[in-house]
Every structure is written in C-alpha cells, then in structure tokens.
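Justification of computing resources. Each target in the renewal requires a structure prediction run like the one illustrated here; the chain below, 190 residues long, is used simply to show the kind of job we budget for.
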Amino acid sequence: MDRPEYHADLKQEYAARSGVFWKLERGQFFDEVGDSAWDAFRAGDWERVLAIFEGDRERVSRDVAAEAQRGVELRRLRIVEHPPSAYLRWETHSHLVFAECGRPIRVLDAEQVADLEGDGPLPELLLGGEVMYRVRYTADMTPDGAVRIDDREAVQEAEALVADLYERSEPLADYFRRVIAPLGPPAYTG
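Resulting structure tokens:
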C-alpha cells in the first residue's frame, strides 16, 4: 500500500477494533516530511519545536481519553541506540508530551534486541488484533506506505514478541530524564 492507502486502511482498522495496539519503532532517523515541528527543527528553531509539541498536548489528551472509552490502548516501544541521534532526541521531546498525556511509551536499548537482528534491524511495525503493518520507507527514510499482514499466527507471534520486549523496557519519562534532558537541545544534522 502506498502512504495514503496505508493511512486509510489503518484508520479503518483502528476504529473497528478494541484492545491493545502496539507500535514498534526501531529506526534512529526518519525524514518527517510535512511535520511542522520537524520543519522547525531543520530550521534550527528549537523554541518553536517545543511550542509545537506543547500545542499538541490538549489534542493528545483528548485522543487518549477517547481511545480509553472505546477500550483501545496504543502502546509504543521505542528502540534506542547510543549515543542517541539528533532525530531521536527531537522525537523523544514529542513522545514525552504523549507520555505525560497518558500514552504508554517505553524505551529499550538496541543491545537488548541484538540477538533478534541477525538479518538486519527489526522492522517498524504497527499491530493489533488480527492485522499488522510493516511500515516501508524510501532510501532517505521518508515514510512510503506499508505492507499489510493478515496472517493471524504471524500477528500473534509479533504481538507476543513486542509485548515481551515492552515488559523489559523502561518508561519513556525515565529515559528522558536520565539520557535526553542532560544533553540539551539537539541540532539537526541531516
């Protein structure tokens, strides 16, 4: 599926289901085309980045509350390498707002998944219930759509793996205070 098809399909699946959805994030850099906070970061305007992230707080809180009423919880697991990339440092500020609004986000050091990555890094996944999406990216890490996987056994295996990794991880807020905050504002490095 191309990116618009993926977003439409995901929106439909997400609206029709309840329970836990998982998002596994492994890449250490993405090109967030069309994101105003990303554009501000690339322009070197860190204060604007933080203002945009803070401006999302009310919407994210509403989204989390609405999902909870539907019986849905989106859990993110962020795999991190050290030292953290400028992208990861930027993204973690956004994710901190999400976490403070009730979105469960946890962080796991890449060393903890090394034994699973013999054939390359873990893929970016979004999964829940009976469907899984393996997100695709262009060579410069711009989102480019996804592959939909409906194999129930494969979805359940991936869900069990991500849940296990999630249990071994630390809350994003703890990671932020321990690793990201002491580094100060990142600079875009392209």
